[in-house]
Design a protein that fits this description.
- The chain is of the alpha/beta class and 266 residues long.
- It has two domains: 184 residues, Rossmann fold, CATH 3.40.50.300; 58 residues, no CATH class.
- It is 38% helix and 23% strand.
- It is built from ten helices and ten strands.
- Strands 6-7-8-3-9-10 form a six-stranded mixed beta sheet, sandwiched between helices. Strands 2-1-4-5 form a four-stranded antiparallel beta sheet, covered by helices on one side.
- β7, α7 and β8 form a beta-alpha-beta unit.
- α3 packs across α4.
- The radius of gyration is 19 Å and the shape is globular.
- The two termini are 21 Å apart.
- It binds adenosine-5'-triphosphate and magnesium ion.
Length: 266
């Protein structure tokens, strides 16, 4: 499937020969893929195409059988020699790539604010942070300020002391995005950020994605809602049976035979 590969002028991410198998099943088999910096890229494809697994590979939740990826020319995947078991997620986050989950992973028995502050503390380890960072309190204050700003920006400020279990599906998606932004990612991977979200909030989330891209955050998102994909994306990548079968601008998708055969025609 090498023929569908489209070279980008300024890729933030380059995946090379990235393969993941579960027994006989090839979940991901991406020969080449480049993600253009500062753009919104949609990943589409049928259920089981490997979209989530691809995100898992990129963010260190799953180890590839083969292949590697490069973020801003910092290597990942199995070519990292220093870390057994792959580059940990928090290091990938620190390098600038953060993801959200298809099934949101907010912690229900914590408040919205506690969820926001969790990521930064958990990543480094509170004890370690204290020992290397005498200004721990200052850092905690700054994190809280940052969390307040993000919650205000995404309409969650009034709920900051509420348990996460009280949020709607859409609000949970927004909380995950807000929490991901605590790490100041350069590349944000959103796995179905619109699933289970009501139409009014979908419009808002699409607007937020566009705003983030305008501020220089590269966005890659998985989505089944084609109206949303066409609306917000600069570029679309179609996966089927683990492989990239097409790349196109959204306006050309509807005419792409491979995409119709694998996905749209269903
Ligand atoms: N941990 C696992 N063990 C075994 N098989 C897995 C595992 N994770 C994913 N798979 C399989 O890999 C394939 C790709 O799954 P994946 O979840 O990446 O698809 P997807 O494109 O995200 O689908 P969806 O649109 O339904 O979210 C599927 O056949 C799935 O059953
Ligand atoms: Mg998925």
């Amino acid at each position: 499937m090498d023929d569908v590969f489209v070279k980008k002028s300024d890729p933030i991410l380059e995946a090379e020969g990235l393969k993941k198998q579960y027994g006989e099943l090839v979940a991901v088999n991406v020969n080449h893929l480049e993600i253009q910096r500062g753009q919104v890229t949609a990943i589409i494809g049928p259920n089981g195409a490997g979209k989530t697994t691809f995100f898992n590979l990129l963010t260190g939740f799953t180890r590839p059988n083969q292949g590697s990826w490069v973020l801003n020319k910092k290597s990942g995947g199995q070519n990292i020699p220093t870390l057994i078991g792959g580059l940990p997620t928090y290091q990938i986050a620190r390098a600038g790539m953060v993801r959200t989950f298809q099934v949101t992973k907010t912690l229900d028995r914590m408040t919205v604010m506690e969820n926001m502050l969790l990521s930064s503390q958990k990543q480094m380890g509170e004890k370690m942070l204290r020992s290397v960072w005498p200004n721990w309190k200052t850092q905690q204050y700054l994190d809280t300020q940052k969390a307040e700003e993000l919650l205000a920006r995404y309409g969650l400020k009034e709920m900051k002391n509420n348990y996460t279990s009280t949020l709607s599906g859409g609000q949970r998606k927004l909380l995950e995005i807000s929490r991901a932004l605590m790490a100041d990612p350069e590349l944000l991977l959103l796995d179905e950020p619109l699933a289970g979200v009501n139409p009014a909030l979908i419009e808002k989330i699409l607007g937020y994605m566009r705003d983030l891209a305008n501020q220089g955050v590269t966005i890659v998102f998985v989505e089944h809602n084609m109206d949303a994909v066409v609306d917000v994306s600069d570029w679309v990548v179609c996966l089927a049976e683990g492989s990239v079968i097409a790349e196109a601008e959204p306006k050309n998708l509807i005419n792409n035979q491979a995409v119709i055969d694998a996905y749209l025609g269903r």
